Please model this.
Amino acid sequence: MSETLEREAMEYDVVIVGAGPSGLAAAIRLKQMAEAAGAEISVAVLEKGSEVGAHILSGAVIDPSGIAELLPDWKELGVPLETAVTQDKFLILGPAGELDVSWAPLPKWMLNHGNYIASLGNVCRWLAQHAEGLGVEIYPGMAASELVFNDEGSVKGVVAGVFGIGKDGQPGPDYQPGIELHAKYTLIGEGVRGSLAKQLQARFDLNKGREPQKYGIGIKELWKVPDSAFQPGLTQHTFGWPLDNQTGGGSFMYHFGDNYVAIGFVVHLNYKNPYLSPFDEFQRFKTHPAIRPYLEGGERISYGARAITEGGAQSLPKLYFPGGALLGCSAGMVNLPRIKGSHNAVKSGVLAAEAAFGAIQAGRSGDELVEYETAYRASSIARELHVARNAKPLLSKFGTIPGVILGAADATLAGMLGGFSFFGTLKHGKSDAESTGLAKDYQPIAYPKPDGVVSFDKLSSVFLSSTNHDEAQPAHLRLKDASIPISVNLPNYAEPAQRYCPAGVYEVLTEDDGSNPRFQINFQNCVHCKTCDIKDPSQNITWTTPQGGDGPNYPNM
Model:
Protein backbone atom coordinates (compact mmCIF):
# COMPACT_ATOMS: atom_id res chain seq x y z
CA MET A 1 0.00 0.00 0.00
CA SER A 2 2.85 2.41 0.89
CA GLU A 3 4.17 2.23 -2.70
CA THR A 4 0.98 3.72 -4.15
CA LEU A 5 0.14 6.28 -1.45
CA GLU A 6 1.35 9.81 -1.11
CA ARG A 7 2.00 10.37 2.57
CA GLU A 8 3.32 13.28 4.53
CA ALA A 9 6.88 12.75 5.69
CA MET A 10 8.75 13.98 8.76
CA GLU A 11 12.53 14.05 8.79
CA TYR A 12 14.65 13.13 11.81
CA ASP A 13 18.22 12.23 12.45
CA VAL A 14 17.18 9.08 14.34
CA VAL A 15 13.82 7.32 14.54
CA ILE A 16 13.40 4.72 17.29
CA VAL A 17 10.63 2.12 17.16
CA GLY A 18 9.54 1.13 20.66
CA ALA A 19 9.56 3.03 23.95
CA GLY A 20 10.97 0.15 25.97
CA PRO A 21 14.21 0.25 27.95
CA SER A 22 16.45 -0.10 24.88
CA GLY A 23 14.70 2.52 22.76
CA LEU A 24 14.43 5.08 25.54
CA ALA A 25 18.04 4.52 26.58
CA ALA A 26 19.13 5.13 22.98
CA ALA A 27 17.08 8.32 22.80
CA ILE A 28 18.50 9.65 26.07
CA ARG A 29 22.07 8.79 25.12
CA LEU A 30 21.75 10.52 21.75
CA LYS A 31 20.62 13.72 23.44
CA GLN A 32 23.34 13.46 26.10
CA MET A 33 26.02 13.17 23.42
CA ALA A 34 24.59 16.02 21.38
CA GLU A 35 24.58 18.29 24.43
CA ALA A 36 28.16 17.32 25.30
CA ALA A 37 29.29 18.02 21.71
CA GLY A 38 27.33 21.26 21.40
CA ALA A 39 25.45 19.72 18.50
CA GLU A 40 21.80 19.30 17.54
CA ILE A 41 20.20 15.94 16.91
CA SER A 42 16.52 15.25 16.28
CA VAL A 43 15.13 12.04 17.78
CA ALA A 44 11.63 10.55 17.56
CA VAL A 45 10.37 7.52 19.48
CA LEU A 46 7.28 5.65 18.29
CA GLU A 47 5.29 3.59 20.80
CA LYS A 48 2.43 1.29 19.77
CA GLY A 49 0.87 1.31 23.24
CA SER A 50 -1.69 3.91 24.28
CA GLU A 51 0.98 5.35 26.58
CA VAL A 52 4.59 4.55 27.35
CA GLY A 53 4.59 1.47 29.57
CA ALA A 54 1.15 0.25 28.48
CA HIS A 55 2.64 -2.78 26.69
CA ILE A 56 5.65 -3.33 28.97
CA LEU A 57 5.58 -6.54 31.00
CA SER A 58 8.47 -8.05 32.89
CA GLY A 59 9.03 -9.88 36.19
CA ALA A 60 10.95 -7.75 37.17
CA VAL A 61 14.12 -7.95 39.18
CA ILE A 62 16.29 -5.30 37.60
CA ASP A 63 20.07 -5.16 37.55
CA PRO A 64 20.67 -1.38 37.80
CA SER A 65 24.01 -1.50 35.98
CA GLY A 66 22.52 -0.43 32.65
CA ILE A 67 20.64 2.53 34.11
CA ALA A 68 23.68 3.48 36.20
CA GLU A 69 25.80 3.60 33.05
CA LEU A 70 23.20 5.76 31.28
CA LEU A 71 22.37 7.96 34.27
CA PRO A 72 25.12 7.80 36.91
CA ASP A 73 23.03 9.89 39.32
CA TRP A 74 19.93 7.72 38.85
CA LYS A 75 19.18 7.48 42.57
CA GLU A 76 19.14 11.25 42.99
CA LEU A 77 17.04 11.60 39.83
CA GLY A 78 14.40 9.27 41.28
CA VAL A 79 14.34 6.35 38.83
CA PRO A 80 11.58 4.16 40.34
CA LEU A 81 13.60 1.07 41.22
CA GLU A 82 11.41 0.56 44.25
CA THR A 83 12.58 -2.25 46.50
CA ALA A 84 16.07 -3.61 47.02
CA VAL A 85 16.26 -7.40 47.06
CA THR A 86 16.76 -8.64 50.62
CA GLN A 87 16.28 -12.40 50.27
CA ASP A 88 16.80 -14.95 47.47
CA LYS A 89 14.93 -18.25 47.68
CA PHE A 90 15.18 -21.20 45.26
CA LEU A 91 12.76 -24.12 45.57
CA ILE A 92 12.27 -27.42 43.76
CA LEU A 93 8.58 -28.25 43.90
CA GLY A 94 6.97 -31.67 44.00
CA PRO A 95 3.22 -32.32 43.81
CA ALA A 96 2.71 -31.62 47.54
CA GLY A 97 6.03 -30.50 48.96
CA GLU A 98 9.16 -28.51 48.24
CA LEU A 99 12.91 -28.72 48.62
CA ASP A 100 14.62 -25.45 49.51
CA VAL A 101 17.95 -25.31 47.65
CA SER A 102 18.73 -21.69 48.50
CA TRP A 103 21.89 -22.97 50.19
CA ALA A 104 23.29 -24.29 46.89
CA PRO A 105 26.54 -22.62 45.73
CA LEU A 106 25.10 -20.75 42.76
CA PRO A 107 27.29 -18.42 40.68
CA LYS A 108 27.33 -14.92 42.18
CA TRP A 109 25.91 -13.45 38.98
CA MET A 110 22.77 -15.56 39.42
CA LEU A 111 22.08 -14.05 42.85
CA ASN A 112 20.09 -10.85 43.24
CA HIS A 113 22.09 -8.94 45.84
CA GLY A 114 22.29 -5.34 44.63
CA ASN A 115 19.28 -5.70 42.33
CA TYR A 116 15.86 -4.08 42.63
CA ILE A 117 12.28 -5.28 42.32
CA ALA A 118 10.17 -2.86 40.31
CA SER A 119 7.60 -2.36 37.59
CA LEU A 120 9.54 -2.13 34.33
CA GLY A 121 6.54 -0.32 32.85
CA ASN A 122 6.88 2.41 35.47
CA VAL A 123 10.64 2.59 34.91
CA CYS A 124 9.95 3.15 31.20
CA ARG A 125 7.37 5.82 32.01
CA TRP A 126 10.04 7.63 34.06
CA LEU A 127 12.68 7.24 31.33
CA ALA A 128 10.23 8.67 28.78
CA GLN A 129 9.65 11.77 30.89
CA HIS A 130 13.40 12.21 31.26
CA ALA A 131 13.89 11.78 27.51
CA GLU A 132 11.22 14.35 26.73
CA GLY A 133 12.95 16.75 29.10
CA LEU A 134 16.04 16.39 26.90
CA GLY A 135 14.05 17.19 23.75
CA VAL A 136 13.14 13.71 22.50
CA GLU A 137 9.80 13.56 20.69
CA ILE A 138 7.74 10.56 21.85
CA TYR A 139 4.58 9.49 20.03
CA PRO A 140 2.43 6.94 21.90
CA GLY A 141 -0.45 5.25 20.11
CA MET A 142 1.55 5.34 16.86
CA ALA A 143 2.24 1.80 15.75
CA ALA A 144 5.07 1.52 13.21
CA SER A 145 3.35 -0.77 10.74
CA GLU A 146 5.64 -0.68 7.67
CA LEU A 147 9.25 -0.11 6.72
CA VAL A 148 10.22 2.47 4.10
CA PHE A 149 13.27 1.88 1.93
CA ASN A 150 15.61 4.07 -0.07
CA ASP A 151 16.10 3.36 -3.76
CA GLU A 152 19.32 1.44 -3.11
CA GLY A 153 17.53 -0.78 -0.58
CA SER A 154 18.59 0.67 2.76
CA VAL A 155 16.00 1.46 5.42
CA LYS A 156 14.75 5.02 5.07
CA GLY A 157 12.30 4.96 7.98
CA VAL A 158 8.87 3.67 8.92
CA VAL A 159 5.18 4.30 8.38
CA ALA A 160 3.18 5.07 11.53
CA GLY A 161 -0.28 6.23 12.44
CA VAL A 162 -2.39 4.32 9.91
CA PHE A 163 -6.03 4.43 11.06
CA GLY A 164 -9.44 3.64 9.66
CA ILE A 165 -8.80 0.43 7.73
CA GLY A 166 -12.05 -1.55 7.75
CA LYS A 167 -12.55 -5.24 8.43
CA ASP A 168 -12.44 -5.88 4.71
CA GLY A 169 -8.96 -4.39 4.56
CA GLN A 170 -10.16 -1.34 2.64
CA PRO A 171 -9.98 2.30 3.78
CA GLY A 172 -13.10 3.35 5.70
CA PRO A 173 -14.70 6.79 6.13
CA ASP A 174 -12.24 7.75 8.90
CA TYR A 175 -9.19 6.49 7.03
CA GLN A 176 -5.84 8.13 7.71
CA PRO A 177 -2.91 6.85 5.65
CA GLY A 178 -0.37 7.63 8.34
CA ILE A 179 2.90 9.45 7.95
CA GLU A 180 6.38 8.41 6.96
CA LEU A 181 9.11 9.13 9.47
CA HIS A 182 12.43 9.29 7.67
CA ALA A 183 15.76 9.07 9.43
CA LYS A 184 19.45 8.83 8.85
CA TYR A 185 19.26 5.75 11.06
CA THR A 186 16.28 3.75 12.31
CA LEU A 187 16.71 1.82 15.56
CA ILE A 188 14.36 -1.10 16.21
CA GLY A 189 13.50 -1.70 19.86
CA GLU A 190 10.13 -3.43 19.49
CA GLY A 191 10.83 -6.16 22.03
CA VAL A 192 10.49 -9.89 21.49
CA ARG A 193 9.47 -11.10 18.00
CA GLY A 194 8.67 -7.64 16.74
CA SER A 195 6.97 -7.51 13.35
CA LEU A 196 9.49 -5.10 11.77
CA ALA A 197 12.50 -6.90 13.25
CA LYS A 198 11.19 -10.16 11.82
CA GLN A 199 10.93 -8.58 8.35
CA LEU A 200 14.40 -7.05 8.60
CA GLN A 201 15.98 -10.34 9.65
CA ALA A 202 14.46 -12.02 6.60
CA ARG A 203 15.16 -9.22 4.10
CA PHE A 204 18.80 -8.72 5.07
CA ASP A 205 19.53 -12.34 6.06
CA LEU A 206 20.57 -11.24 9.54
CA ASN A 207 20.23 -14.78 10.96
CA LYS A 208 22.73 -16.34 8.54
CA GLY A 209 25.08 -18.62 10.46
CA ARG A 210 23.11 -18.21 13.68
CA GLU A 211 21.13 -20.78 15.63
CA PRO A 212 17.33 -20.52 15.70
CA GLN A 213 16.05 -18.14 18.35
CA LYS A 214 14.45 -19.92 21.31
CA TYR A 215 11.59 -18.54 23.38
CA GLY A 216 9.54 -18.96 26.51
CA ILE A 217 6.14 -17.58 27.42
CA GLY A 218 6.00 -15.65 30.66
CA ILE A 219 2.58 -15.21 32.28
CA LYS A 220 2.33 -12.75 35.14
CA GLU A 221 -0.16 -11.55 37.72
CA LEU A 222 0.14 -8.63 40.11
CA TRP A 223 -1.43 -9.08 43.53
CA LYS A 224 -2.03 -6.78 46.49
CA VAL A 225 -1.60 -8.90 49.61
CA PRO A 226 -2.18 -8.39 53.35
CA ASP A 227 0.69 -7.50 55.69
CA SER A 228 0.74 -11.05 57.05
CA ALA A 229 1.75 -12.43 53.63
CA PHE A 230 4.04 -9.59 52.53
CA GLN A 231 7.83 -9.94 52.77
CA PRO A 232 9.36 -6.83 51.17
CA GLY A 233 12.45 -7.60 49.13
CA LEU A 234 11.77 -11.35 48.82
CA THR A 235 12.54 -12.98 45.49
CA GLN A 236 11.60 -16.62 45.05
CA HIS A 237 12.16 -18.86 42.05
CA THR A 238 10.98 -22.43 41.61
CA PHE A 239 11.24 -25.22 39.09
CA GLY A 240 9.68 -28.65 39.02
CA TRP A 241 5.96 -29.23 39.59
CA PRO A 242 3.59 -28.79 37.82
CA LEU A 243 5.90 -29.30 34.81
CA ASP A 244 7.61 -32.62 34.20
CA ASN A 245 11.38 -32.84 33.90
CA GLN A 246 11.29 -32.73 30.08
CA THR A 247 9.24 -29.53 29.96
CA GLY A 248 11.37 -26.49 30.69
CA GLY A 249 10.13 -23.65 32.83
CA GLY A 250 9.65 -22.35 36.34
CA SER A 251 8.16 -19.60 38.43
CA PHE A 252 9.03 -16.25 39.96
CA MET A 253 7.56 -14.35 42.89
CA TYR A 254 8.71 -10.87 43.92
CA HIS A 255 7.50 -8.78 46.89
CA PHE A 256 7.87 -5.03 46.41
CA GLY A 257 6.36 -1.58 46.82
CA ASP A 258 3.07 -1.14 48.65
CA ASN A 259 2.27 -4.79 49.48
CA TYR A 260 2.59 -5.86 45.84
CA VAL A 261 3.44 -9.43 44.87
CA ALA A 262 4.44 -10.04 41.26
CA ILE A 263 3.97 -13.73 40.55
CA GLY A 264 4.50 -15.46 37.26
CA PHE A 265 5.25 -18.65 35.42
CA VAL A 266 7.52 -19.30 32.43
CA VAL A 267 7.13 -22.25 30.07
CA HIS A 268 9.84 -22.81 27.49
CA LEU A 269 8.18 -22.95 24.09
CA ASN A 270 10.13 -25.97 22.87
CA TYR A 271 7.72 -28.18 24.84
CA LYS A 272 6.54 -31.23 22.93
CA ASN A 273 3.06 -32.06 24.27
CA PRO A 274 0.54 -30.16 22.11
CA TYR A 275 -2.09 -30.56 24.85
CA LEU A 276 -0.08 -28.48 27.32
CA SER A 277 -1.57 -25.11 28.31
CA PRO A 278 0.95 -22.67 29.85
CA PHE A 279 -1.92 -20.62 31.31
CA ASP A 280 -3.43 -23.60 33.08
CA GLU A 281 -0.03 -24.77 34.33
CA PHE A 282 0.37 -21.34 35.94
CA GLN A 283 -3.05 -21.49 37.57
CA ARG A 284 -2.32 -24.99 38.87
CA PHE A 285 1.09 -23.87 40.20
CA LYS A 286 -0.52 -21.22 42.42
CA THR A 287 -2.47 -23.89 44.30
CA HIS A 288 0.74 -25.50 45.62
CA PRO A 289 1.00 -25.37 49.44
CA ALA A 290 4.33 -23.52 49.17
CA ILE A 291 2.73 -20.77 47.05
CA ARG A 292 -0.95 -20.48 48.00
CA PRO A 293 -0.41 -18.89 51.46
CA TYR A 294 1.26 -15.86 49.86
CA LEU A 295 -1.88 -15.12 47.81
CA GLU A 296 -4.88 -16.13 49.92
CA GLY A 297 -6.54 -13.06 51.35
CA GLY A 298 -5.02 -10.90 48.63
CA GLU A 299 -6.49 -9.32 45.51
CA ARG A 300 -5.37 -10.03 41.96
CA ILE A 301 -5.20 -6.63 40.26
CA SER A 302 -3.49 -7.20 36.90
CA TYR A 303 -2.65 -9.93 34.41
CA GLY A 304 -0.56 -10.22 31.26
CA ALA A 305 1.74 -12.38 29.18
CA ARG A 306 4.83 -11.90 27.06
CA ALA A 307 7.24 -14.02 25.07
CA ILE A 308 10.84 -14.10 26.28
CA THR A 309 13.95 -14.71 24.18
CA GLU A 310 16.03 -17.61 25.49
CA GLY A 311 18.44 -18.48 22.69
CA GLY A 312 21.35 -16.48 24.06
CA ALA A 313 24.62 -15.66 22.32
CA GLN A 314 24.41 -18.23 19.54
CA SER A 315 20.95 -17.04 18.48
CA LEU A 316 21.69 -13.33 18.23
CA PRO A 317 21.23 -12.06 14.66
CA LYS A 318 23.56 -9.63 12.99
CA LEU A 319 22.79 -6.45 14.93
CA TYR A 320 22.92 -3.91 12.10
CA PHE A 321 21.35 -3.57 8.68
CA PRO A 322 21.63 -0.85 6.02
CA GLY A 323 20.11 2.19 7.71
CA GLY A 324 19.73 0.97 11.27
CA ALA A 325 20.13 -1.56 14.04
CA LEU A 326 18.33 -4.00 16.34
CA LEU A 327 18.26 -3.28 20.07
CA GLY A 328 17.63 -5.29 23.23
CA CYS A 329 15.01 -8.00 23.01
CA SER A 330 14.51 -7.32 19.30
CA ALA A 331 17.91 -8.98 19.01
CA GLY A 332 17.47 -11.40 21.94
CA MET A 333 19.75 -10.16 24.73
CA VAL A 334 18.08 -11.90 27.67
CA ASN A 335 20.37 -13.90 29.95
CA LEU A 336 18.24 -17.00 30.59
CA PRO A 337 19.87 -18.33 33.79
CA ARG A 338 19.79 -14.83 35.31
CA ILE A 339 16.18 -14.34 34.15
CA LYS A 340 17.16 -10.79 33.23
CA GLY A 341 17.45 -8.69 30.09
CA SER A 342 16.45 -5.10 30.81
CA HIS A 343 19.99 -4.10 31.88
CA ASN A 344 21.36 -5.49 28.61
CA ALA A 345 18.56 -3.74 26.70
CA VAL A 346 19.57 -0.39 28.20
CA LYS A 347 23.25 -1.02 27.44
CA SER A 348 22.47 -2.00 23.85
CA GLY A 349 20.53 1.24 23.41
CA VAL A 350 23.56 3.17 24.67
CA LEU A 351 25.92 1.36 22.30
CA ALA A 352 23.65 1.84 19.28
CA ALA A 353 23.17 5.51 20.11
CA GLU A 354 26.90 6.08 20.33
CA ALA A 355 27.45 4.38 16.98
CA ALA A 356 24.65 6.34 15.31
CA PHE A 357 25.76 9.66 16.78
CA GLY A 358 29.34 9.14 15.64
CA ALA A 359 28.17 8.25 12.14
CA ILE A 360 25.90 11.29 11.88
CA GLN A 361 28.65 13.59 13.13
CA ALA A 362 30.87 12.14 10.40
CA GLY A 363 28.26 13.06 7.77
CA ARG A 364 27.05 9.51 7.19
CA SER A 365 23.49 8.22 6.84
CA GLY A 366 21.65 5.09 5.73
CA ASP A 367 24.72 2.85 5.84
CA GLU A 368 25.69 -0.02 8.13
CA LEU A 369 26.49 0.77 11.76
CA VAL A 370 29.28 -1.79 11.97
CA GLU A 371 30.60 0.13 14.98
CA TYR A 372 27.57 -0.96 16.98
CA GLU A 373 28.29 -4.67 16.58
CA THR A 374 31.98 -4.07 17.23
CA ALA A 375 31.11 -2.27 20.46
CA TYR A 376 28.67 -5.04 21.40
CA ARG A 377 31.36 -7.71 21.02
CA ALA A 378 33.59 -5.82 23.45
CA SER A 379 30.77 -5.15 25.90
CA SER A 380 29.56 -6.65 29.15
CA ILE A 381 26.47 -7.87 27.27
CA ALA A 382 28.53 -10.13 25.02
CA ARG A 383 30.65 -11.40 27.93
CA GLU A 384 27.56 -12.19 30.00
CA LEU A 385 25.75 -14.00 27.18
CA HIS A 386 28.88 -15.92 26.18
CA VAL A 387 29.38 -17.29 29.69
CA ALA A 388 25.74 -18.44 29.85
CA ARG A 389 25.51 -19.66 26.23
CA ASN A 390 25.04 -23.34 27.03
CA ALA A 391 22.31 -22.96 29.66
CA LYS A 392 19.41 -23.37 27.22
CA PRO A 393 20.87 -26.25 25.15
CA LEU A 394 21.71 -28.17 28.34
CA LEU A 395 18.16 -27.72 29.62
CA SER A 396 16.76 -28.91 26.30
CA LYS A 397 19.05 -31.94 26.13
CA PHE A 398 19.02 -33.19 29.72
CA GLY A 399 15.76 -31.86 31.17
CA THR A 400 15.14 -29.39 33.96
CA ILE A 401 16.96 -30.67 37.03
CA PRO A 402 20.08 -32.14 35.37
CA GLY A 403 20.07 -29.19 32.93
CA VAL A 404 19.98 -26.62 35.72
CA ILE A 405 22.87 -28.33 37.54
CA LEU A 406 24.97 -28.72 34.41
CA GLY A 407 24.16 -25.22 33.18
CA ALA A 408 25.09 -23.59 36.48
CA ALA A 409 28.34 -25.58 36.67
CA ASP A 410 29.23 -24.79 33.05
CA ALA A 411 28.52 -21.07 33.46
CA THR A 412 30.48 -20.93 36.72
CA LEU A 413 33.53 -22.53 35.11
CA ALA A 414 33.17 -20.39 31.99
CA GLY A 415 33.14 -17.29 34.20
CA MET A 416 36.37 -18.43 35.85
CA LEU A 417 38.05 -19.53 32.61
CA GLY A 418 37.46 -16.47 30.45
CA GLY A 419 34.44 -17.94 28.68
CA PHE A 420 35.93 -21.38 27.99
CA SER A 421 33.47 -24.29 28.22
CA PHE A 422 34.24 -28.00 27.99
CA PHE A 423 31.03 -28.24 25.94
CA GLY A 424 32.22 -25.62 23.45
CA THR A 425 29.18 -23.78 22.13
CA LEU A 426 26.18 -26.07 21.96
CA LYS A 427 23.53 -25.72 19.27
CA HIS A 428 19.77 -25.42 19.63
CA GLY A 429 18.83 -27.27 16.45
CA LYS A 430 15.07 -27.06 16.06
CA SER A 431 12.89 -24.01 16.32
CA ASP A 432 10.19 -24.04 18.99
CA ALA A 433 7.51 -24.59 16.34
CA GLU A 434 9.36 -27.65 15.04
CA SER A 435 9.60 -29.06 18.57
CA THR A 436 5.84 -29.57 18.85
CA GLY A 437 4.90 -33.26 18.97
CA LEU A 438 1.99 -35.01 17.28
CA ALA A 439 -1.27 -35.30 19.22
CA LYS A 440 -1.42 -39.08 18.67
CA ASP A 441 1.69 -39.49 20.82
CA TYR A 442 0.26 -37.68 23.86
CA GLN A 443 -2.76 -37.76 26.13
CA PRO A 444 -4.93 -34.68 26.77
CA ILE A 445 -4.23 -33.01 30.13
CA ALA A 446 -7.17 -32.68 32.54
CA TYR A 447 -6.62 -29.35 34.30
CA PRO A 448 -8.50 -28.60 37.54
CA LYS A 449 -11.28 -26.05 37.44
CA PRO A 450 -10.27 -22.63 38.78
CA ASP A 451 -11.27 -22.01 42.39
CA GLY A 452 -11.75 -18.24 42.02
CA VAL A 453 -9.46 -17.68 45.02
CA VAL A 454 -5.94 -18.22 43.69
CA SER A 455 -6.70 -19.79 40.27
CA PHE A 456 -8.85 -18.26 37.54
CA ASP A 457 -10.10 -18.67 33.97
CA LYS A 458 -8.66 -17.00 30.87
CA LEU A 459 -11.41 -14.48 30.21
CA SER A 460 -11.47 -13.03 33.74
CA SER A 461 -7.68 -12.80 33.49
CA VAL A 462 -7.73 -11.01 30.14
CA PHE A 463 -10.20 -8.53 31.64
CA LEU A 464 -7.50 -7.52 34.14
CA SER A 465 -5.09 -6.75 31.29
CA SER A 466 -7.43 -3.95 30.15
CA THR A 467 -6.78 -5.04 26.58
CA ASN A 468 -8.83 -3.36 23.89
CA HIS A 469 -8.94 -3.59 20.11
CA ASP A 470 -11.34 -1.78 17.82
CA GLU A 471 -13.54 -4.53 16.38
CA ALA A 472 -14.00 -2.57 13.13
CA GLN A 473 -10.39 -3.10 12.07
CA PRO A 474 -8.95 -6.18 10.37
CA ALA A 475 -7.57 -8.86 12.67
CA HIS A 476 -3.91 -8.11 13.32
CA LEU A 477 -3.34 -11.89 13.61
CA ARG A 478 -2.99 -13.01 10.00
CA LEU A 479 -3.27 -16.55 8.64
CA LYS A 480 -1.10 -17.30 5.63
CA ASP A 481 -3.55 -20.08 4.71
CA ALA A 482 -6.97 -20.02 6.38
CA SER A 483 -7.46 -23.77 5.82
CA ILE A 484 -4.40 -24.92 7.79
CA PRO A 485 -5.84 -24.73 11.36
CA ILE A 486 -8.59 -27.24 10.55
CA SER A 487 -6.99 -29.29 7.75
CA VAL A 488 -3.49 -29.66 9.25
CA ASN A 489 -3.18 -28.43 12.84
CA LEU A 490 -6.40 -29.99 14.15
CA PRO A 491 -5.80 -33.58 13.01
CA ASN A 492 -2.05 -33.54 13.60
CA TYR A 493 -1.64 -31.38 16.70
CA ALA A 494 -5.19 -31.04 18.15
CA GLU A 495 -4.87 -27.35 17.12
CA PRO A 496 -2.59 -26.23 19.99
CA ALA A 497 -3.39 -22.52 19.48
CA GLN A 498 -6.42 -23.15 21.69
CA ARG A 499 -4.02 -23.89 24.55
CA TYR A 500 -0.74 -22.06 24.02
CA CYS A 501 -2.49 -18.69 23.71
CA PRO A 502 -2.88 -17.23 27.23
CA ALA A 503 -5.75 -14.94 26.24
CA GLY A 504 -8.38 -17.15 24.63
CA VAL A 505 -7.79 -15.67 21.19
CA TYR A 506 -8.05 -18.93 19.25
CA GLU A 507 -10.99 -21.34 19.35
CA VAL A 508 -12.12 -24.38 17.39
CA LEU A 509 -15.91 -24.24 17.20
CA THR A 510 -18.15 -27.12 16.14
CA GLU A 511 -21.79 -28.04 15.84
CA ASP A 512 -23.46 -29.67 18.86
CA ASP A 513 -22.55 -33.12 17.55
CA GLY A 514 -18.88 -32.16 17.11
CA SER A 515 -19.09 -31.84 13.33
CA ASN A 516 -18.09 -28.99 11.03
CA PRO A 517 -15.10 -27.65 12.99
CA ARG A 518 -14.13 -24.06 12.23
CA PHE A 519 -11.33 -21.82 13.47
CA GLN A 520 -12.21 -18.55 15.19
CA ILE A 521 -9.82 -15.71 16.03
CA ASN A 522 -10.95 -13.44 18.87
CA PHE A 523 -8.27 -10.86 18.16
CA GLN A 524 -9.87 -8.39 20.58
CA ASN A 525 -8.48 -10.51 23.45
CA CYS A 526 -4.85 -10.38 22.28
CA VAL A 527 -2.31 -9.26 24.90
CA HIS A 528 0.51 -9.07 22.31
CA CYS A 529 2.58 -11.91 23.76
CA LYS A 530 3.52 -13.15 20.22
CA THR A 531 3.39 -16.81 21.29
CA CYS A 532 1.21 -17.75 18.30
CA ASP A 533 3.76 -16.31 15.86
CA ILE A 534 6.44 -18.44 17.56
CA LYS A 535 4.79 -21.75 18.50
CA ASP A 536 2.30 -22.48 15.69
CA PRO A 537 3.66 -25.80 14.33
CA SER A 538 2.71 -24.86 10.76
CA GLN A 539 4.14 -21.32 11.10
CA ASN A 540 0.87 -20.11 9.62
CA ILE A 541 0.15 -17.22 12.02
CA THR A 542 1.77 -13.82 11.58
CA TRP A 543 1.46 -11.25 14.34
CA THR A 544 1.23 -7.67 13.07
CA THR A 545 0.62 -4.36 14.80
CA PRO A 546 -3.03 -3.37 15.30
CA GLN A 547 -4.14 0.18 14.63
CA GLY A 548 -3.64 3.01 17.08
CA GLY A 549 -2.75 2.30 20.67
CA ASP A 550 -4.78 -0.90 20.79
CA GLY A 551 -3.74 -3.79 23.00
CA PRO A 552 -3.22 -4.22 26.72
CA ASN A 553 -2.96 -1.35 29.17
CA TYR A 554 -0.76 -2.65 31.94
CA PRO A 555 -0.58 -0.73 35.22
CA ASN A 556 2.50 -1.40 37.39
CA MET A 557 3.53 -4.45 35.34
Q: What stands out?
A: The mean pLDDT is 96. Residues 24 and 128 are 6 Å apart (CA to CA).
